[in-house]
Automatic annotation (TrEMBL):
<dbReference type="InterPro" id="IPR004624">
    <property type="entry name" value="YjdM"/>
</dbReference>
<dbReference type="InterPro" id="IPR013988">
    <property type="entry name" value="YjdM_C"/>
</dbReference>
<dbReference type="InterPro" id="IPR013987">
    <property type="entry name" value="YjdM_N"/>
</dbReference>
<protein>
    <submittedName>
        <fullName>Alkylphosphonate utilization protein</fullName>
    </submittedName>
</protein>
<feature type="domain" description="Protein YjdM C-terminal">
    <location>
        <begin position="45"/>
        <end position="112"/>
    </location>
</feature>
<comment type="similarity">
    <text>Belongs to the YjdM family.</text>
</comment>
<dbReference type="Pfam" id="PF08274">
    <property type="entry name" value="Zn_Ribbon_YjdM"/>
</dbReference>
<dbReference type="Pfam" id="PF03831">
    <property type="entry name" value="YjdM"/>
</dbReference>
<feature type="domain" description="Protein YjdM N-terminal">
    <location>
        <begin position="3"/>
        <end position="32"/>
    </location>
</feature>
């Protein structure tokens, strides 16, 4: 590699070598050279238990979730089929029976 990679955390171009790692001078994030070489630009989404989620999986809600702007609540144990993963803060798109289209955070679900 003749050119140093940008920081994966903050996107800064001000990075440097420190032994076998890269370091960002702005946010102090450190990462290995292997992580740069093996980077597939794919975000891995994991549930609350650490299981990897994929498109089409069935999940179960592990916490009562209030629906913003409504008096509805997604109850614990609600099963959601055929999820879709997206690049966002709420990384799961799905349809919940009785509520409709929703975006969920993966930290509040487990793989069924």
């Amino acid at each position: 590699m003749s050119e140093l990679p940008n920081c994966p955390q903050c996107g800064s171009e001000y990075t440097y070598h420190d032994g076998s790692n890269f370091v960002c001078s702005l946010c102090a994030h450190e990462w290995s050279q292997d992580a740069v070489e093996n980077n597939d630009d794919l975000k891995v989404v994991k549930d609350a238990n650490g299981n990897v989620l994929q498109d089409g999986d069935t999940i179960t809600v592990i916490k009562d979730l209030k629906v913003k702007g409504s008096s509805l609540v997604v109850k614990v144990g609600t099963r959601v089929k055929n999820i879709r993963l997206v690049e966002d803060d709420h990384d799961i798109d799905c349809k919940i029976d009785g509520i409709g289209a929703m975006k969920l955070k993966s930290e509040f679900v487990k793989k069924a």
